[in-house]
Design goal:
With 629 residues, the chain is an alpha+beta fold. The protein is built from 17 helices and 26 strands. The strands form five sheets. Strands 5, 6, 7, 8, 9, 10, 11, 12, 13 and 14 form a ten-stranded mixed sheet that branches.
C-alpha cells in the first residue's frame, strides 16, 4: 500500500472550515475508523527544485533529495542545490491504492466532513461552459503512436504558494502511480494558461521523432541548445530516458500544442519549460492523456475536485474535446447510477439496518441516495474510482456504520481445512519445472484480443484462432483496452516476459502454473477456469528436442510415461503458431487433447522483438491428472 504524507494543519483547517469538529487528539482514531491506518505523526522538510520549481518533501531520516523526480535535475551538480522551503507536520498514512481521491488534503477533508456528518450527500461542483477546445489527431489511435484519449480542464482564479504547488505536484505524481500505472495508462500535465495562445483550438497530435524542437521542463527555454527533438528527449533527458519504454516501437510521438503551435508537453514523458506553473500562475490548463477514456476522465475529476476543495475560490471551466467521430466536454462530474438492495446490504453487514438508515450511511460517504422501497438508487461521485459493484456500496455503508459496532459470531458450521488436490499437484508441477532449471513467473489473467490472437498469427480466417475465439471470455465493461478478455492461454504472458528481459543473457527458461478462462455452458456462471502449465525456452541453439525432453521429464514427476499414459502426435492441421513439422499435440489414452509443444513461428518471435528461437509447451494440468492411470 502507498504511504502518503498528509499535511495535518491543512487537513484540520479544511475539515473545520464550517465548524470545529476535529483536533490533533481525535485525528488518528478518526482516520482509523474511516479505514485508514496512521503510520506516524512526524515532520517533513520541503525542498524546491531550482530548475522547474517542483517541491519535494523528505523526512529527517530520508535526508535531502539527490535529484528532482519531475525534471530530472541533479542537485549534486554545482549551482543546482535545492532551496529549503521549511517544515510542516504530516501524518504518514497507509492508503489503499483504489482510493486516489483521498490521497490529498482536499479529498481527505471532503471524505472526513461527510463521515463526521458535517457535509453529507453528493457534493456538486459547478463547471463553466468551455471556452477552449482540443482537437485530437486520429493517428494517435494507431499502433505506431497509440495514446488515443485525452481529458482537459481549466482552473481560473488561482492563488498559489509553495504549499499549494507542493500539493498540486504531489497529487499529480500520486495519480500517475495509482491510476496511471507509472504513466503507462494515464499521465497528467499542468500548465500556466497565461503563457499559451488561446485564440484557436489546441492540438493533440502525433509528430515524427525529429519533426520539431522544444525546451523540456528544467532546461533554459531561451537557450537554443536546450531545444530538443522528441527523439533527443528520449535519448538525452533524464526523465525521457526513464520513461522512454512507454513510447518504445512508436514511429510517431504524442504532442500537445496550443493555437500558435507552442508545445505544452510530450505525453507521457515531460512538459515544456515555457509553460511551467509558478507562484505567479493565476490560471491553469490541465490535461490527462492515456489509453482509456474512463481512466483519463477519472484522473481529471480527482485532480480538479481535490484542488477545488483546497482553493474554494477557484473556478472550474470545461474544455471541448474534438475526436474525429465525436465531441465531449470534460470534466464531467455526473454521478454514476447504481442500485442496491437494502435487505441484501443489511444481511451482508450483519446489522439491523433499514433503507432509511442505509441512506444516511451512504450519504455520509458522499453518495447521492434515493430510497424506493427496498431499492436504494445511488449516485456514485465521479471521483470515486473504487465503486464498481453494489458490494462496494455495502462496504462504504459498513465503514460509516463502524466495524467496531459489529458483534462477533461463530461460524455456524465446522469443517477441517485442507489443500485442494489441484493446488497440491500445482506445487508438484512448480517443483518439477524449477528442478529442470526453469524460473517461475506470474503474468496477468486479463489481456486483450490483439495480444492473445493477432500477435500469435490467430487473426483473420485462421480456423484454429476462430475455434479459440468462440471460447473466449470477454469483459463487459473493461477498465482498460489492454484488459478486455480473460486469457485463454499462458503462452502470450510468457513471451511478453521474455520480451521484457531481452537485455539479459541467454538461454532463458521460464514457466507459469496458472488458470486460463474459457466459456462453458455447463458451468454455473457460463464460464470456468482451468489450471494449466506452460514453459518457454529461448536461446541461440534451442529446438524441438529441448522442449520434448523437458516435457517427458515433467511427465515422469506425475508417473506418466510415453505411449502408456500419453502420446505426442503431429497436429491434424497446421497450427499457425508453430513452424510446420516442428510441433506436436499431447493426447491421453482416449485420444483427447491434453496440450501442445513446439518451435514458435519466426513471425511471432519477431513481433515480440526477440532475435532467437523460442520453443514452448503448454498443457492442461487438470486434464492430465483426470486421465485414469
Amino acid at each position: 500500500m502507498p504511504v502518503i504524507n498528509m499535511p495535518v494543519d491543512l487537513l484540520l483547517r479544511l475539515v473545520n472550515a464550517d465548524r470545529a469538529v476535529m483536533d490533533d487528539a481525535r485525528l488518528p482514531q478518526t482516520l482509523h475508523d474511516m479505514g485508514i491506518e496512521v503510520d506516524e505523526l512526524t515532520r517533513t522538510r520541503a525542498y524546491g527544485c531550482p530548475a522547474c520549481e517542483n517541491v519535494l518533501e523528505r523526512t529527517e531520516a530520508q535526508g535531502p533529495p539527490a535529484a528532482c523526480g519531475r525534471c530530472g535535475a541533479d542537485f549534486r551538480e554545482a549551482g543546482r542545490a535545492p532551496r529549503e522551503l521549511g517544515e510542516r507536520r504530516v501524518a504518514r498514512l497507509d492508503m489503499l491504492a483504489v482510493r486516489p481521491d483521498i490521497f490529498d488534503a482536499g479529498g481527505m477533508a471532503r471524505y472526513m466532513r461527510g463521515y463526521l456528518g458535517v457535509q453529507t450527500g453528493l457534493i456538486r461542483y459547478e463547471v463553466a461552459p468551455p471556452q477552449l477546445s482540443v482537437r485530437v489527431d486520429p493517428r494517435l489511435g494507431r499502433d505506431d503512436s497509440y495514446r488515443p484519449c485525452i481529458a482537459c480542464g481549466v482552473l481560473r482564479g488561482l492563488s498559489l504558494d509553495d504549499d499549494t504547488i507542493r500539493l498540486l505536484m504531489n497529487m499529480q505524481e500520486d495519480l500517475h502511480w495509482a491510476l496511471g500505472r507509472d504513466r503507462k495508462l494515464a499521465s497528467i500535465g499542468v500548465y500556466d494558461l497565461d503563457t499559451l495562445r488561446t485564440d484557436g483550438p489546441f492540438q493533440y497530435r502525433a509528430v515524427g521523432p525529429d519533426e520539431l524542437r522544444f525546451a523540456p521542463l528544467g532546461s533554459r527555454a531561451a537557450d537554443p541548445a536546450s531545444q530538443l527533438t522528441p527523439r533527443e528527449v528520449l535519448q538525452q533527458h533524464r526523465t525521457g530516458r526513464e520513461y522512454a519504454h512507454l513510447l518504445g516501437g512508436f514511429s510517431a510521438y504524442p504532442l500537445l500544442v496550443d493555437a500558435a503551435g507552442t508545445v505544452l508537453s510530450m505525453p507521457p514523458i515531460i512538459n515544456s519549460e515555457s509553460t511551467r506553473v509558478t507562484a505567479k500562475t493565476r490560471q491553469c490548463f490541465v490535461d490527462v492523456t492515456g489509453l482509456a477514456q474512463r481512466t483519463v476522465d477519472r484522473a481529471l475529476n480527482i485532480l480538479l475536485s481535490g484542488l477545488r476543495e483546497v482553493c474554494p475560490s477557484v473556478r472550474i471551466e470545461g474544455v471541448k474535446i474534438e475526436y474525429h467521430d465525436r465531441a465531449i466536454t470534460t470534466p464531467d462530474f455526473t454521478p454514476s447510477p447504481m442500485t442496491l438492495s437494502a435487505r441484501t446490504a443489511a444481511e451482508t453487514i450483519g446489522a439491523p439496518l433499514d433503507a432509511a438508515a442505509l441512506t444516511g450511511l451512504l450519504e455520509r460517504m458522499g453518495h447521492a441516495v434515493r430510497a424506493e422501497g427496498d431499492a436504494l438508487h445511488v449516485g456514485v461521485p465521479a471521483w470515486r474510482n473504487d465503486v464498481m459493484h453494489p458490494i462496494d456500496l455495502v462496504e462504504d455503508a459498513a465503514v460509516a456504520y463502524g466495524y467496531d459496532k459489529l458483534t462477533a459470531a461463530l461460524v455456524p458450521t465446522f469443517t477441517v481445512g485442507g489443500p485442494r488436490l489441484i493446488e497440491e499437484q500445482s506445487a508438484i508441477a512448480r517443483r518439477a519445472l524449477a528442478g529442470l532449471g526453469y524460473h517461475q513467473v506470474m503474468t496477468l489473467v486479463l489481456t486483450s484480443e490483439p495480444a492473445a490472437f493477432d500477435r500469435w498469427r490467430l487473426g483473420g480466417d485462421s480456423e484454429f484462432g476462430t475455434d479459440l475465439r468462440q471460447r473466449l471470455v470477454r469483459i463487459e465493461n473493461p477498465i482498460s483496452s489492454e484488459q478486455t478478455v480473460g486469457r485463454i492461454s499462458l503462452l502470450p504472458g510468457l513471451l511478453e516476459t521474455l520480451a521484457l528481459n531481452r537485455q539479459h543473457d541467454l538461454p532463458q527458461q521460464i514457466f507459469e502454473v496458472g488458470d486460463v478462462c474459457t466459456l462453458d455452458p455447463a458451468a454455473e456462471t457460463g464460464a470456468r477456469e482451468e489450471r494449466c502449465v506452460a514453459a518457454a525456452l529461448i536461446g541461440t541453439h534451442v529446438g524441438y528436442a529441448d522442449v520434448r525432453a523437458a516435457c517427458d521429464a515433467f511427465m515422469r514427476e506425475f508417473d506418466r510415461t510415453p505411449d502408456r499414459h500419453y502420446r505426442i502426435v503431429p497436429p491434424t492441421a497446421d497450427d499457425p503458431r508453430f513452424l510446420p513439422g516442428r510441433s506436436g499435440r499431447l493426447l491421453n489414452q482416449q485420444g483427447e487433447w491434453i496440450g501442445v509443444l513446439g518451435e514458435l513461428h519466426p513471425e511471432i518471435i519477431e513481433g515480440y522483438g526477440l532475435g532467437h528461437a523460442v520453443v514452448v509447451m503448454e498443457w492442461s494440468l487438470e486434464r492430465l491428472l483426470n486421465d485414469p492411470d
